[in-house]
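cron nightly-structures :: item 1 of 1
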Amino acid sequence: MQLTAQTKGYDGSFYWAFDQVNVGVQVPPEQGGGAFNGYWPSFRATQQRHNPYKTDISWNVYYCVTGNPFNFAGFHEGAIVNISSILKGEGKLQGESSTPVSVKNG
């Protein structure tokens, strides 16, 4: 992955965008089959205006696959839960977190 864009706001908000550098991975049939040809994620964290102690985080993903090689929604939702748990354990995340949800467009 290569960082292609980033911004940081005065309030701690940020935006990161990445591109997958190496593409064209064939996925064996026993692992779902197909091919994984590209992955372009971005992360945006925005402090809520009405509550300065609450931050919205979105993880947008564009990817190119054939077949059904990966469950991206399950992977990303699990990753957000895991990251939240680690940050909470380190005292860097306070309060209550919403359950991650996936929305598929297209």
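cron nightly-structures :: done
The longest helix spans residues 72-89.
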